[in-house]
Design a protein that fits this description.
single chain; about 475 residues; FAD/NAD(P)-binding domain; Enolase-like, domain 1; 3 domains
């Protein structure tokens, strides 16, 4: 069978690329090695983790806040099997939705492991050992990433786990050690902290979510401490030893010889992810990777082999589902002879803890390091009527603008529903709005987004109205 384009991998980047290719009239196929479509994001990443985050937040609110609202509950308890069951149902419906979209757009789905025979032929090896070879003019590699699990951490999928296994624990652990203070570790760590687990985070850097604005790091850490999460910043893990029912984690200060051990039911390894290109046969077609295993591409996301493209986690850049989606559409339209564009500076980053964290554009530290003259406006949620009404008063919005032109250079938020609020910031920056532009826009009252308006007012010359 001959196709115009074959996509290897059905995660958000892959299936969106397939849909856009089909929309543009290309005969399209997608290859997925697992039984369900959707990749890491839909099966063991974004979607299931958000389902558990939501469930755990409902429990936490019932336990900590309902009485304040005049709601009394007796015998409140966690039904972990039901929580996992609901999560699995969310995943199933979402994955089925992707399968429907493939049928709707007439994209052929081939289940099996895809690898290169040559630049125009892909071998699909199925679970039963049978094989088929597909012919194509173009290929898009969208195979995503896997958790980094150093050998010294003795990853066993039982007591030493990654995000994949953390999504299926059926009893609330008493104690959990999280290695890594990044997005994945903090999201899943917060799930279990809300349910009553004693969570301790070991982070080598001097702050959590180090890639985001420093004020966001401070605000989130303050909030997570309130639900009982303990932090060991500037520390490294030296040993991880698991037994049948527990795990012992050896920890050392980053710049000293001081050591101690942490005992827990589980150790969650969340130190990042690496590009998944194993056994794709890249060597057969002459595709190279960098020192981190990522595929090298040009400005069109094309590899050094004409007609073969790569998107998402297998190339440089933030490992974000929505970044992969944008790249999938980009490549499809480029193949079709169009002139698409992606502004990587304006792809937002989000942490789905509660409060949520979101940011777009440049951080304060990055702008100062670049020697850019800036002005900053901040507004705390505790000064916002809507936030007080919902008892979600932690966090703030921070607007950074050019000191001379007033153009917005970055917006960073910690607070309720900032994952949704950040879209306004992206729109403003896409149209190169000034802080004054944002400040003069009417925002409905009472809403969380008023905090963005107030922060923009503060950035234009200390003009915030409600602080």
């Amino acid at each position: 069978m001959k196709y115009d384009v074959i996509i290897i991998g059905s995660g958000p980047g892959g299936y969106v690329a397939a849909i856009r290719c089909a929309q543009l009239g290309m005969k399209t196929a997608i290859i997925e090695k697992y039984a369900t479509l959707g990749g890491t994001c839909l099966n063991v990443g974004c979607i299931p983790s958000k389902a558990l985050l939501d469930s755990s937040e409902h429990y936490h609110n019932a336990h900590e806040k309902f009485a304040e609202h005049g709601i009394k509950i007796d015998n409140l308890k966690v039904d972990m099997p039901q929580m996992i069951k609901r999560k699995n149902e969310v995943v199933s419906v979402t994955c089925d939705g992707v399968a429907f979209l493939m049928k709707k757009n007439k994209v052929d789905v081939h289940h099996g492991f895809g690898s290169f025979v040559d630049k125009n032929h892909i071998l699909v090896t199925k679970d039963d050992g049978s094989e088929e070879t597909l012919e194509t003019d173009k290929v898009i590699i969208a195979t995503g990433s896997k958790p980094i699990t150093p050998g010294a951490f003795n990853y066993d999928k039982k007591r030493v786990i990654t995000s994949t296994e953390a999504l299926n624990i059926t009893d609330v652990p008493k104690r959990m050690v999280v290695i890594g203070g990044g997005v994945i570790g903090l999201e899943l760590g917060s799930v279990y902290a809300r349910l009553g687990t004693e969570v301790e985070v070991v982070e080598f850097a001097d702050r959590i979510i180090a890639g985001m604005d420093k004020d966001c790091s401070k605000e989130l850490m303050r909030a997570l401490k309130k639900i009982g999460v303990k932090f060991h910043l500037k520390h490294k893990v030296t040993t991880v030893k698991a037994s049948k029912n527990s795990v012992t984690v050896g920890v050392q200060k980053r710049d000293k010889d001081d050591t101690f051990e942490l005992e827990a039911d589980y150790c969650l390894v969340a130190i990042g992810r690496h590009a998944y290109t194993d056994k794709l046969g890249l060597d057969k077609v002459g595709i190279s990777t960098d020192d981190k295993g990522r595929i090298n591409v040009d400005k069109h996301l094309e590899t050094e082999v004409p007609g073969i493209f790569a998107i998402g986690d297998v190339i440089k850049g933030a490992m974000l589902a929505h970044k992969a989606e944008e790249e999938g559409v980009f490549v499809a339209e480029h193949i079709n002879g169009e002139k698409p564009h992606i502004d990587y500076n304006l792809i937002p980053g989000v942490v789905y803890t509660w409060p949520e964290v979101a940011g777009v554009g440049q951080t304060e530290d990055a702008l100062k390091e670049a020697g850019r003259a800036i002005k900053i406006g901040k507004f705390p949620f505790k000064a916002l009527g809507r936030a007080r009404a919902s008892t979600d008063t932690e966090g703030m919005v921070k607007v950074i603008a050019d000191k001379e032109t007033d153009e917005i250079l970055g917006i960073h938020m910690v607070g309720p529903r900032t994952a949704d609020m950040i879209a306004e910031a992206v729109v403003a920056m896409e149209f190169r709005a000034s802080a004054e532009d944002l400040a003069r826009m009417s925002h409905a009252h009472p809403t969380y987004t008023e905090a963005t308006k107030e922060a923009a007012l503060a950035a234009t010359g200390d003009r915030a109205l409600h602080v």
